[in-house]
């Protein structure tokens, strides 16, 4: 067998460490939830008792506007009789700079998606295979294997794959907590930086999503300024993933890092933005990811890397036309924000009726739902997973547990609300309300002897409900959740 | 500055080694040639004296058939009034398995593109961002940084980027030579393997293109079988890049590695195929790359990696429909082969008229042109580059020098012939013929005193022409090629 080490199994050492190290993160509960949904997907008429997918941050609220535009603009596609005369040129186009019109349109759209308060240079627009590819690309450009990026937690579960898996970069979380509504502070970053340096880590940068996934919150301008100054002082990078820029539906304006990059105390060479059309436009299938850097060398390097994940020229061509249509874009952004706001309002109000609160948020396609009071054992990640399995298997809603976002406090869940129609959302809310209500009633009857103290105390009615809900959940997991697969001791979350 | 090393320049150590190591290969002459073309691109009417691009292996000969199909199948696009009702589902589709219909159609097409002699399992079809992404993906799956893949030379210039740049994998060339028409032999592979092992390299596999880029030749079944047995014996991988499978226009059938994988002496877990629609269909802009592996773990791992370079769902949807249309595919493949054969015939005949031979080939979108007799100094790579600059700057044809393919014999050039219309090809041939003829005549006049011996010898007429051509080339580079930029001593090719 020459110089090769013999492997234990069929593949063993014959595959790479990356192929065998499991750091793609797909064994996390986050992906497990998706699989449950896949097995029994809800459909209003065909499968009304199926699992409703609330783990997918999709934006389906304004696709009707895009469809209208497509019907009115047949020349925008090379696959229509009206546009096919351009087919050959477009089908052959593989320049990694991208179609000039595409880059211009994207830059223009990025400005509009940030309220028109900043402009972007088309020459700095680098294509990538979705934000997934864009985040990996920027890591490959900035950091060597073993280098560290600080990432505020809770953070997007797939960052473990996107930022680390093939690059070898390490993530050190900057823990945020409910004590200040999970707000990212310079102090928390400084502390994490200091700890990492003390552990002999080579910290290469700070990366966060703004608006935040999974929180749906946005960072205020002062904090952003201070963070930018901090990275300048430490000579480390700042990558801001702004793929939810246009999902802000209430409150203050979203402040892009592009707004503070010209601050005199900033080294712009350290500032990079990741963008995408998957969330703001609702087009994840089209795989439009963007790396936007103020550092010329990074632009040049990332562009070379874009060869590994170029946007289909068919897609570039259509989007170039669509995104340069000012009246369409203006209306789309306004309407999208409005519809997201309404959807968010309906959903959070519905949750409130069931006694469930969420972190106050003004952006995103999800809420950060607080179920701490429903955990069987407070402050226990095991209980979080138990509760989560009940929600999936009994309430039939696929939501995502906070631990899959590396949240340090058990009991939080990300729930997506923009990937379904009004009817489905209605069913989801009914299920939650019915479940809470029915189980409270049932348990109340049974508990009449045991829980007299609580029942007799009207002032503690809300607490009583919660307590009973915990009981009902406990009964449920005792009834139905004893299969070893579901409570696998090898669940990575139990390590959290 | 914390624990960070201070950098010399603005970027220095703040960027990654990958970003600063230059191993993307874009400084090679191969890419330099493209840049020359970009500055002054030929157009029949608008810029008839511009550079003709013959360095790009594009297939534009059958795009009319695709355009016809598109016009007749408006439902195949989600961006037509007829197909837009499916827009939302497709725009949101981001499952890394790909659309089921797409995988089935691709598998079906791959079989047809190999003469229907093999079938492919849709469950093993893994998407990737073009063959560029597919080749990188398979390296990430199979090898660790520092591991070696053996690659027969001459090989596709961008392999240095695709296989090595971000993966850290090393390429050890298996040198093929004109002595046996550059045929890959098991002996050559064994020798390279042995040498690599002796140098303490961890050889993880063998990778080659079949049909060969840049040679346009195909590998016979016996050799393929023996290579497959060799990798089995050594427990190393075999990756066959078959992106030119359907470009075979003459001679024997192309034998895919899929045809020999069931050989009893083969470990199928070691066999992997890279495919793409860029060459066979002429759709490089659509970025359809495929990793097809017989190893379940590799399929699973590559699929996870495909998240970094998924095919746009807009593109998947259209191609699913097009490639499952049997009568279209059958006609396309037959017509494409026929047109490539005619084009190849016209081009090589035209070159012959100018006294230029090519390696005999039966596939590909290019010929491997033998200009060894025109080198100022025989067997000199410096002369090859000189000659190449003359061809670009004076004859105004962007061809690719053999050294950029790691060819060990100076004087060979890859010339693409399928990325232009008949008229442009005609102009290209006229330029070559005129150039050879005019310069031969001029030099013949001047040389009447000096070269009496040769002129008087009718039997050596051909040799005389070549000799004078060398003279004319010499004059040309003395006239026009003295700019330091062009003859940069730092050209990576001088290291070859």
UniProtKB/TrEMBL annotation, chains A, B:
Biological process according to GO: amino acid metabolic process; ethylene biosynthetic process; fruit ripening
Signal sequence coordinates: none
InterPro entries the record matches: Aminotransferase_I/II_large, Ethylene_sulfur-biosynth, NHTrfase_class1_PyrdxlP-BS, PyrdxlP-dep_Trfase, PyrdxlP-dep_Trfase_major, PyrdxlP-dep_Trfase_small
SUPFAM superfamilies xrefs: PLP-dependent transferases
Keyword entries, A-Z: Ethylene biosynthesis, Fruit ripening, Lyase, Pyridoxal phosphate, S-adenosyl-L-methionine
Reactions listed under catalytic activity: S-adenosyl-L-methionine = 1-aminocyclopropane-1-carboxylate + S-methyl-5'-thioadenosine + H(+)
Annotated metabolic or biological route of this protein: Alkene biosynthesis; ethylene biosynthesis via S-adenosyl-L-methionine; ethylene from S-adenosyl-L-methionine: step 1/2
Native species: Brassica napus
Gene: BnaC05g00530D
Record keyword Lyase present: yes
Superkingdom classification of source: Eukaryota
Protein name: 1-aminocyclopropane-1-carboxylate synthase
Cofactor names: pyridoxal 5'-phosphate
EC number(s) on file: 4.4.1.14
Gene Ontology MF annotations: 1-aminocyclopropane-1-carboxylate synthase activity; pyridoxal phosphate binding; transaminase activity
Keyword ATP-binding: no
Family under the similarity heading: Belongs to the class-I pyridoxal-phosphate-dependent aminotransferase family.
Boundaries of every Aminotransferase class I/classII large domain copy: 52-432
């Amino acid at each position: 067998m020459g110089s090769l080490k013999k492997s234990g199994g069929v593949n063993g050492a014959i595959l790479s460490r990356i192929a065998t190290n499991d750091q793609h993160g797909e064994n996390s509960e986050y992906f497990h939830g998706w699989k449950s949904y896949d097995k029994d997907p809800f459909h209003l008429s065909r499968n009304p008792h199926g699992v409703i997918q609330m783990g997918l941050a999709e934006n389906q609220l304004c696709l009707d506007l895009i469809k209208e535009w497509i019907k009115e603009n047949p020349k925008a596609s090379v696959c229509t009789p009206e546009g096919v005369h351009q087919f050959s040129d477009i089908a052959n186009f593989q320049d990694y700079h991208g179609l000039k019109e595409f880059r211009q349109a994207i830059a223009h759209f990025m400005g509009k998606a940030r309220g028109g308060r900043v402009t972007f240079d088309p020459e700095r627009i680098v294509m990538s295979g979705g934000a997934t590819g864009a985040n990996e690309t920027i890591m490959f450009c900035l950091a060597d294997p073993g280098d560290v990026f600080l990432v505020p937690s809770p953070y997007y579960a797939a960052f473990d794959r996107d930022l680390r898996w093939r690059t070898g970069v390490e993530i050190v979380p900057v823990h945020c907590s409910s004590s200040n509504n999970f707000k990212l502070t310079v102090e928390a970053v400084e502390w994490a930086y200091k700890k990492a340096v003390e552990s002999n880590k080579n910290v290469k940068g700070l990366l966060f999503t703004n608006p935040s996934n999974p929180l749906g919150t946005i960072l205020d301008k002062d904090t952003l300024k201070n963070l930018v100054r901090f990275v300048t002082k430490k000579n480390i990078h700042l990558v801001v993933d702004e793929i939810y820029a246009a999902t802000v539906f209430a409150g203050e304006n979203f402040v892009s890092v592009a707004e503070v990059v010209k601050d005199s105390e900033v080294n712009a060479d350290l500032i990079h933005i990741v963008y995408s059309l998957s969330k703001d436009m609702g087009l994840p299938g089209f795989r439009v990811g963007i790396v936007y850097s103020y550092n010329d060398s990074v632009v040049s390097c990332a562009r070379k890397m874009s060869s590994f994940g170029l946007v289909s020229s068919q897609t570039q061509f259509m989007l170039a036309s669509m995104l340069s249509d000012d009246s369409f874009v203006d209306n789309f952004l306004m309407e999208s924000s409005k519809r997201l706001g309404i959807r968010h309002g309906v959903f959070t109000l519905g949750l409130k009726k069931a006694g469930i609160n969420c972190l106050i948020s003004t952006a995103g396609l999800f809420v950060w739902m607080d179920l701490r009071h429903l955990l069987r054992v407070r402050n226990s990640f095991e209980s979080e997973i138990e509760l989560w399995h009940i929600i999936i298997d009994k309430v039939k809603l696929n939501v995502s547990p906070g631990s899959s976002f590396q949240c340090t406090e058990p009991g939080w869940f990300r729930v997506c609300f923009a990937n379904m129609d009004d009817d489905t959302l209605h069913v989801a809310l009914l299920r939650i309300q019915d479940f809470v209500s029915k189980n409270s009633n049932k348990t109340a009857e049974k508990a009449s002897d045991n829980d007299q103290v609580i029942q007799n105390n009207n002032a503690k009615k809300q607490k009583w409900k919660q307590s009973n809900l915990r009981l009902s959940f406990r009964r449920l997991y005792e009834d139905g959740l004893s299969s070893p697969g579901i409570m696998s001791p090898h669940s990575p979350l139990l390590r959290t």
